[in-house]
Sequence to fold (343 residues):
Amino acid sequence: MYYIGLDVHKKTISFCVKDAAGHVWQEGKIGSTRRELDAWIQTLPQPRTMAMEATIFTGWIYDHLLPHAEQVKVAHPLMLRAIAAAKKKNDRIDAGKIADCLRCDFLPECHMASTEIRDRRRTLRYRSLVIKQMVQMKNRVCGLLMETGVSYNKQRLHKVGYFSELMSSNEQVQESIRPLLKLSREMISRSQKLDYALVCSLERDPVLCERLRRLRTIPGVGPITALTWALEIGDFTRFRSIKQAISYCGLCGDESSSADKVMRMPLSKQRNKHIQRVLIEAAKLAPRESHELALVRAKELERGNRNRATLAVARKMVCYMLAVERRKQDFVPAEQFSRNAAA
Fold:
């Protein structure tokens, strides 16, 4: 078996090919294009296993190399940096160290979602960007009105009818800001239409349709929460326990223990920030729809910390969603489950 380490960059890829004994068989640098990769693959010995560090460019390179190797692995950047720390560092050395980690089975491998999940996840994350820009534009509209001393109804400002009425009948709106307000309104309208189109395309996708339907039977799980879970989690079987899923979602803190001292730190930054944000937002509203989640929140509130109560609800929602995924059944509330068992 030959072990190939790749140090991937935007324009170039440094590589190092080693045999099982650690002897360098080949090393060098090629361009980050499909044509050069195809030509390079023809020069490699077989059988071969490849590894690279996770970057923004990893996805397409991974897909392109997968048919040409027994295995293609992707390394966790943070953990790999800790293992391969050295005084001298360059692309050639990095590629060699990745090959050594692969050869010695020390590579801190991270999960690589399937192509179909990554393609759909790209659409969902693009939708998040659209929403972020739309919110920024709404805030800019409010800022323009406040800067010029225009009175307005905050709750109705972004309604089409009220905005048109404000522009036509309110004499406080100065001529200098009217073009900016109209342009902002047009951008908000386009963003809303784009948001609707993106969400609808994902909800109707045959790959996700049945999975989303089951997830939405859980109280407090709407279309965006279900989509985010399905596409950010991907293959749920990679989590051997609920604790691993909760940690991945960023709903627990770090631990720093030494000897007899155990210190719990704030929420870890090593998490999937996309699903963390959505789950926390959903956990704020979910207790209104579920008596069980309301009890979880009330129990934590007795200790006097609202943020911990929200996190407790979010963790419970992760348990529900993981259970629904594993059983491939609709969610059944505890009260209904007890009645069915008694009957």
